[in-house]
Amino acid sequence: MKKSLSFLSRLLLLALLLGLFSFPASAAGETSVYLDGQRLVFDQPPAAMNNRVLVPLRVIFEGLGATVEWDPNDNLTIRARKGSTTVQLTIGSSRMTKQVGSDKQSITLDVAPIALNNRTLVPVRAVSEAFDCQVSWDGSANRVNISTEPDHWVILNFFSDPDEFFGNGLFDGGTFYFSFIRRSMLYVYDGSTLRSFNAGGMPMNILPRDGKAYYYTLSSEAVYGLDTATGKREILFNGDGGVEIQDLMLYRNYLLVTSESQLHAVNVNTKKVVLVHEKAASSSQVLVTASGGKIFVLDTGGTTADGVTAALEVTMVNPDTGASQSIYSQSSVGGGIRFIPDMDGQGLYLELEDTGVCLFFDAATGQRQAVTQSVFEAACDAYNVSFPDWDSEWNYGSNINYGMFRQHKETGLREYLYDGKGCHIFAINSSCVAFLQSENATTPGSSSFGNSAVYIMNTDGSNLVELVNNWGDGGPTSSGGSGDTGGSGALEPITCTVCGGSGWLLCSGCNGAGLLYPHR
Q: What predicted TM-score, i.e. pTM, was given to this entire model?
């Protein structure tokens, strides 16, 4: 008992000393912590110690989706579980254990968990990375950014089109970032509050992450980063408008900027710009992805201006230095190509359908090895289900003549969620669909937009909310818009002889002939 008391006494003394010599971050400018773009709220402010940020354990673990329990034997040891991963820490100890299934490893912490003001604080980077999150420090904003996206994840805005100027948008977690009919504004909706920011021009190809939005503007094509916590906006690339931008992607802290003939990597923290790739020929098609800290570029080749035939080539590039390594080439390609990152962030999978070749490339070495078709298909399946808009049952889409719909993957039955012309899907996440409805914006050759609005609703069509419009006060308000949901619109279906007139469901047998609003 004496030994036990002695240990506890030393521990309490350590906690008191840490309470004296560590300091709440607010003493030197409050430190904030953002998880997938959402600020975490603590009843005990984060503390800084040895250049590490510590935060109350329950908020961070539960934010990461883990359950927390204390060891009843000593009340000093904490276990957090999420899926097959268990993380264990002890107050005052610099050892942390991480167990995934039967695999157990010990990790040395730079700073041990501490007791402060009746709260237990843990090092935010260490515990977040233990659950495979990405952590970065923004010194200018005194902010920790945590992303639950896997290391390989390349953020794309699938529904953004550089030839369409009526707007675009994307979810980051539960927050929706979007632009609207040529307005020089960035809108942000968190489920209850709509905010707007001066974007410096109409934002194109919006890519949000950790409370920041990256985009280029329609007018100048300058690439911006906008911090929605402060409203601060800064040019990251192409301030002179010399590059005609076609697409943006975001990988880790790199913006990948595609133009007519080049691919640049822009470090969003340092603003350093690296030329990653230059097209081999004007007719080349270029595919880009990333894994393991490397950018992978597939150039299909073609005939150059000098009449030379360039081969198909896969290149692996370090985005920090621009150093590149050719890891595969082929004289020509005559079929489809599939090009995906490994779910574990270890490398790249490639399939050339004309030859039946399936390969895996190691991101650390660039070495390749042949894999079977079944291994490749398993990698594709794992990658597809990792998308935030992936749904096991439904595909979602829009029809400019008839509204918003979802189509069952197995049966092909199509259900209209919203009735109205001029609809264009903006973005999807696991629970919501966001879209534009405009009289003329989606009509080719139209010189005006007409009445237009952006809406968001649940993926089953319920809880429709109007976020912003161009004819009066913008939302967010519950609204039926200029179309209707729930099947109560001017367009009524007639009985289909194939599906038996099952409400709003359209079947493959109808082909639009049995309804007043045929689907395409």
A: 0.71
